[in-house]
Every structure is written in C-alpha cells, then in structure tokens.
Specification:
The protein has about 60 residues and is an alpha+beta fold. It is built from 2 helices and 2 strands, in the order E-E-H-H. The chain has one domain (about 5-65). It is globular.
Length: about 60
C-alpha cells in the first residue's frame, strides 16, 4: 500500500504487513477507529499529498532524475 493509516494514537505498526509496508507512507492519528470519519480520512490524504515520495533515495537523487 502507498499509505498506512494508524488510528488510536499508537506510533508503531506492531509487525502488521511488515514486508508489504516497505516504502509505504505512514500516517498516525490520535482518533480511535470508531470515530475515524470522512474528515479525518481527507486529512490523511492531504498529508500524504504533501510528502515527497523517495522510495529509499535521498531528495537529491530524486530531483536529479
């Protein structure tokens, strides 16, 4: 997946999809799952859109393509 959203305030993945999450972007929110709604989803997507996807490279390597 490109984005993993972790709810409930925990800032760890607990070995969940450990191999599949390579190069995934992680988004952590204090909102608990039952309260996670459309507004919080849009906040996560907006945060994701602001990130520079580097896939293991440095910013300089990405910009020099």
């Amino acid at each position: 997946p490109d984005l993993l959203i972790r709810t409930g305030g925990e800032k760890r993945i607990s070995n969940f999809l450990l191999w599949q999450l390579a190069y995934s972007e992680l988004y952590f929110t204090d909102t608990f799952w039952p309260d996670f709604g459309e507004e919080e989803l849009y906040a996560a997507i907006f945060d994701y859109q602001q990130r520079e996807r580097r896939f293991g490279k440095t910013s300089e390597q990405v910009k020099s393509k």
